[in-house]
Design goal:
Spore Coat Polysaccharide Biosynthesis Protein SpsA, Chain A, UDP N-Acetylglucosamine Acyltransferase, domain 1, 2 domains, 9-stranded mixed β-sheet, 29 strands, elongated, glycogen metabolism, nucleotidyltransferase, GlmU/GlgC-like_hexapep, transferase, Glucose-1-phosphate adenylyltransferase
Length: about 425
């Protein structure tokens, strides 16, 4: 354990957080996917960052690009307390045309290349490249140790996924030693795992390199006009062919309760986002957010405790099989199997059933919402019914393939204009 701790001390985490996440539809109209809320109070990016700090990595940089204001503000509030005098660093690296006035980040590898001089100042031996848009708990020290012990040029974090879903990932084959023998980025027809025709071995978008080697690879790639300057498309396949690329199984480093399956979720669609949040309201959820040994850190807003008021028939402030965050006021509302983020205020005779309600939402009297995601800051008008008539919902809101209704304030405003209803209280 002492040796792995030294590895983490001489390692930095570089988090790629620039992609929009368009499959989340209007949830990413105002914020990048890693900044989307999750689990009652956190943001998606908090999982990768918490994994890094819990693994002992205290040198971290986050590269941002698309609509980054919400993400940057969150990072400033939640993560800047790292202390430089203790050799801890946290840098936010927006695409700022530092190398060329016409050039934003051209790809995932280029996002690192454009910040080589900053990374050099960290005085590190290894670098862990992370995607900032997945939900999981992982000890990166274990992956670092495997990387060093195997003498790999790159170690790629991987997990087993259903073959029909694998076209969204980099897909690899390995030999018995774990060496990667082929790597295809988002193939239309993903190759199956040997002996498992319905499964594929997929990249998690987590890579470990020695920094001197990656630095050389990046600078060479920057001058290659035929490159898309992307890890999965260019650098990793090149190392599979010309170097030593090793696979690291997520199952070996996943942080989980004893006897549990490894938990990893891409919450990149409205259905997946809704399901992963609703799963947290289960009696014994697969993802343990209450684990003090591996906490998911985030910005904790100074909010009063949640309050439940009124105790009359059909006007009882109650929540069953639900998660209710600080600052919420459940006033005469029936809440079932739902997750309410910070500062949600509901009013009398309303009903919420299997709903994910993001922060600062107000729900007026007599509203009924079922299987819905309500974006942050929305005012739900009095008497609005969502989730009971899919055809009617689809006229005004976003209904997912799985039957989840996404509600945003622009949708409410358009609905109000069409119906002549007051949209805001």
């Amino acid at each position: 354990m002492q040796q792995t701790h030294r590895l983490s001390q001489r390692t930095m985490a570089f988090v790629l957080a620039g992609g929009r996440g368009s499959r989340l539809r209007e949830l990413t109209d105002r914020r990048v996917k890693p900044a989307v809320y999750f689990g009652g109070k956190a943001r998606i990016i908090d999982f990768a960052l918490s994994n890094a700090t819990n693994s002992g990595i205290r040198k971290i940089a986050v590269a941002t690009q698309y609509k980054a204001h919400s993400l940057i503000r969150h990072l400033q509030h939640a993560w800047t307390p790292l202390r430089p005098e203790r050799n801890e660093f946290f840098d936010i690296l927006p695409a700022s045309q530092r190398m060329d006035e016409s050039m934003w980040y051209r790809g995932t590898a280029d996002a690192v290349t454009q910040n080589v001089d900053i990374i050099d100042g960290y005085n590190i031996d290894h670098i862990v490249i992370l995607a900032g848009d997945h939900i999981y708990k992982m000890d990166y020290e274990i992956m670092l140790q495997q990387h060093v012990d195997s003498g790999a040029d790159v170690t790629v974090g991987c997990l087993t996924v259903p073959r029909e879903e694998a076209s969204a990932f980099g897909v690899m084959d390995t030999d018995e030693s774990g060496r990667i023998t082929s790597f295809l980025e988002k193939p239309a027809d993903p190759p199956a795992m040997p002996g498992h025709p319905d499964k594929a071995l997929a990249s998690m978008g987590i890579y470990v390199f020695s920094w001197p080697l990656l630095r050389e690879l990046l600078l060479n790639d920057a001058h290659d006009d035929g490159s898309s300057h992307d890890f999965g498309t260019d650098l990793i396949p090149r190392l599979v062919e010309q170097g030593r690329a090793m696979a690291h199984r997520f199952d070996d480093s996943c942080v989980r309760d004893e006897g549990r399956e490894a938990y990893w979720r891409d919450v990149g669609t409205v259905d997946a986002f809704w399901q992963a949040n609703i799963d947290l309201t289960n009696f014994d959820p697969e993802l343990n957010l209450w684990d003090r040994d591996w906490p998911i850190s985030t910005y904790s807003e100074a909010a009063p405790p949640a309050k439940f008021i009124h105790d009359e028939e059909k006007r009882r402030g109650s929540a069953v099989s639900s998660m209710v965050s600080g600052g919420c006021i459940v006033s005469g509302t029936e809440v079932r199997n739902s997750l309410l983020f910070t500062q949600v205020h509901t009013n009398s005779y309303a009903v919420l059933d299997h709903c994910v309600v993001l922060p600062y939402v107000t729900i007026a009297r007599h509203a009924r919402l079922t299987r819905a995601v309500v974006d942050a800051g929305v005012s739900i008008p009095e008497g609005l019914v969502v989730g009971e008539d899919p055809e009617e919902d689809a006229r005004h809101f976003r209904v997912s393939p799985g039957g989840v209704t996404l509600v945003t304030q622009p949708m409410i405003d358009a609905w109000a204009a069409e119906t002549g209803t007051k949209a805001r209280g």
